[in-house]
Input
Amino acid sequence: MPPIISARNVGKTFHQLKRRPGFSGALKNLFSRDYTDIHAVNGISFAIEPGEAVGYLGPNGAGKSTMIKMMTGILTPSAGELSVLGRTPHANRMRNAAEIGVVFGQRSQLWWDLPVHDSFALNRHIYDIPEARFADNLAFLTTMLDMAGFIDRPVRQLSLGQRMRAEIALSLLHDPKILFLDEPTIGLDVVAKDVVRKFLTRVNSERGTTIILTTHDLVDIEEICPRLIMVDDGKLLFDGELQHLRASLGSRRRLTLEFGTDPGPIALTTATLSRDEGAAKHYLLENEAISLIDVLNEVGRGHGLKDVKLEEPDIEEVIRTFYQNKARNGGVRA
Ligand SMILES: Nc1ncnc2c1ncn2[C@@H]1O[C@H](COP(=O)(O)OP(=O)(O)OP(=O)(O)O)[C@@H](O)[C@H]1O
Ligand SMILES: [Mg+2]
Output
């Protein structure tokens, strides 16, 4: 099967008028048209297969929203080739819109003064959704996103978490093949984030909807997206599985051994002691190939071991290590 999205050396350059400050600056601005070029997206290539869930990650200004806008046909690339569902997005905006769903965390697509349900009904007409299909989808989305309590209320009265659930429902009513989400969990509390994440995971796995999402919340990536694309300064830094990123960075697992009483120092070849609190000893597992069993075999039975705790490096730590390494020696590819 061909990729559902393919980007080849895609670029987007904004020409921005240089603005000088103050009154004399404003006068000069009138007569001199000096532009600076901002390379918001700079030679990005990737291919996404149908049914994937991909997290698009990068610091502020890295070019994430710009890439989403090009993939959804809102912006035209200034370089390269972009294909979504076999079409050039900006040249086929109407046909594209029928097959994709888009959610911008920062901008509502619901009608502010109308009840949520009316925006849904309008989309039914815009997308020409068959009545039975619409009823099925509405029932599914209302239950899954727990919207019954507010579906009849005007959007302006909703909390952010309620509105975001309604935005996501709106984007899925017409059964899009791809769902693009630009910061869908921004500003949500932990409970609302959890609802959104579980829902998106389900839509991806049960309906096979391809998901591309940008976020600053790494837990979104961890829970929804096995694949991660990282960008900075318009350029691609990493494309691969989060697991591979972990492995390629040699991120270390943390192990804690708890003993009934302090057994004294225990040096191991399978793990490095990082902190000794007497009865509790903390180690780092430097090597992916070493298993917990290997360590426990080495510790042996003689010390009165009571409990064991093994922790994966958290994603924040993995990403931080990645950016530190990148600053030293350029990007990593899995
Ligand atoms: N319409 C525009 N005109 C000029 N410059 C723009 C325009 N849109 C974006 N930019 C610039 O392009 C760069 C990338 O912006 P973009 O919005 O894609 O970043 P982002 O990765 O989404 O950041 P954030 O995490 O803050 O949302 C930034 O330097 C931004 O100022
Ligand atoms: Mg953005």
Remarks:
- The radius of gyration is 25 Å.
